[in-house]
C-alpha cells in the first residue's frame, strides 16, 4: 500500500480549536467559522490526494512513542463540562494497521522505540479536526502519540524519520494550538498570545530552515513562551510537522486574533502544495 507517489504532500500544524466544536455550532454560532474555513481550504488545496492521515495529537502522551493500530478505532472523550450529547458523537474513519506498522518501522529504523496500540481510539484533538477536513470519514486515520518528556529536539527528529510518508500519500498533521493557556480566557491573554504568535510567524514563515530549527529547539526563549504554553503538549505536534519538512518553506494558513474572544491563534503549512 505504501508505495512512492509522483507528488510529495506538505505537512501541517493546525490549531484545533476547543472541545468537540464541529458538533456544537448551534451553541457556539460563528466562534470557529474562520478555523473551519481554513480546514476546508486545506482539503481543497490537497485536491483529495492523501491516501491516509497520520495525526500527532497534543492530547495523547505515552512514555514511548505509540501508534494507534486498530482497524476500527473507537472514541476518546477527553474533555469535560460539555453537553451530554457530545459524549455520544462518533467519527468513524477506518484505522490502518498497515500504516501503523510503517510508522513503527520508520521510527525503529531511526533508533527510536515505538509501540503499537490496537485499542487506542480517536481523541478530540483528532476527531474535532478531521470532522471538517473529511466529514465523510472515509480516509484511513492513524494517531501517533507524543513522548511524555516533551523534548522538542526529539520530536523534530521524529518528524525527520517520518518524512518518507509524504511521498507515499500520507498526510502528516500536527494537531495542537499555537496558544494554549486555559487559565487565560480573558483580556489578559491578548498581549502574550499576540506576541508569541508574532514569534511563530517570524520563525516558521520568515526564517531560513536552519534558523527555524534552532528557534524551535529553544522555543522557551520566545516572548511569553511559558505564558503561551505553561505545558508544551499543544506545541510539540508542531515540531513533528516541521521536522518532516525541515528544509522547505512555511506558510500561515489560518490566523485569528480573537479565537475564544481573546486568543491570537494560527495554523501553518510546510512544503509546497501539490500541482
General description of the model:
Helices cover 31% and strands 20% of the residues. The chain is α/β, with parallel strands linked by helices and 275 residues long. The strands form two sheets. Strands 5-2-6-1-8-7 form a six-stranded mixed sheet, with helices on both faces. The chain is globular, with a radius of gyration of 17 Å. The two termini are 23 Å apart.
Q: CATH topology, what is it called?
A: Protocatechuate 4,5-dioxygenase, Chain B
Q: Could you name the CATH class?
A: Alpha Beta
Would you tell me the structural class of the helices and strands?
alpha/beta
Radius of gyration: 17 Å
* Low-confidence spans: none
- What's the SSE pattern? EHEEHEHEHEHHHHEE
End-to-end distance, in Å?
23 Å
What gross morphology would you assign? Answer: globular
- How confident is the prediction overall: mean pLDDT? 96
**CATH H-tier superfamily:** LigB-like
Number of strands: 8
Strand content: 15-25%
CATH architecture: 3-Layer(aba) Sandwich
Task: Report the sheet with the most strands, covering strand number, pairing sense and barrel closure.
Answer: 6 strands, mixed
Tell me the count of domains. 1
| Strand order in space, largest sheet | 5-2-6-1-8-7
Number of helices: 8
- Amount of helix: 25-40%
Amino acid at each position: 500500500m505504501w508505495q512512492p507517489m509522483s507528488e510529495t504532500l506538505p505537512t501541517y500544524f493546525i490549531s484545533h480549536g476547543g472541545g468537540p466544536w464541529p458538533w456544537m455550532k448551534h451553541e457556539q454560532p460563528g466562534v470557529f467559522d474562520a478555523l473551519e474555513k481554513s480546514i476546508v481550504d486545506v482539503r481543497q488545496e490537497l485536491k483529495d490526494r492523501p491516501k491516509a492521515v497520520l495525526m500527532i495529537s497534543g492530547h495523547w502522551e505515552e512514555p514511548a512513542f505509540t501508534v494507534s493500530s486498530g482497524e476500527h478505532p473507537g472514541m476518546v472523550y477527553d474533555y469535560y463540562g460539555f453537553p451530554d450529547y457530545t459524549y455520544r458523537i462518533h467519527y468513524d474513519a477506518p484505522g490502518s494497521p498497515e500504516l501503523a506498522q510503517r510508522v513503527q518501522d520508520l521510527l525503529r529504523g531511526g533508533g527510536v522505540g515505538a509501540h503499537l496500540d490496537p485499542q487506542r481510539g480517536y481523541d478530540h484533538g483528532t476527531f474535532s479536526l478531521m470532522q471538517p477536513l473529511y466529514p465523510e470519514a472515509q480516509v484511513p486515520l492513524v494517531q501517533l502519540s507524543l513522548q511524555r518528556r516533551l523534548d522538542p529536539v526529539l520530536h523534530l527528529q521524529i518528524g525527520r524519520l517520518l518524512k518518507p510518508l509524504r511521498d507515499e500519500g500520507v498526510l502528516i498533521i500536527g494537531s495542537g494550538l499555537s496558544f494554549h493557556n486555559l487559565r487565560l480566557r480573558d483580556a489578559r491573554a491578548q498581549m502574550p498570545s499576540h506576541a508569541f504568535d508574532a514569534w511563530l510567524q517570524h520563525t516558521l514563515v520568515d526564517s531560513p530552515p536552519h534558523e527555524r530549527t534552532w528557534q524551535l529547539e529553544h522555543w522557551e526563549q520566545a516572548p511569553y513562551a511559558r505564558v503561551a504554553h505553561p505545558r508544551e503538549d499543544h506545541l510539540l505536534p508542531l515540531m513533528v510537522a516541521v521536522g518532516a519538512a525541515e528544509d522547505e518553506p512555511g506558510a500561515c494558513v489560518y490566523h485569528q486574533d480573537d479565537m475564544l474572544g481573546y486568543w491570537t491563534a494560527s495554523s501553518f503549512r510546510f512544503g509546497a502544495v501539490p500541482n
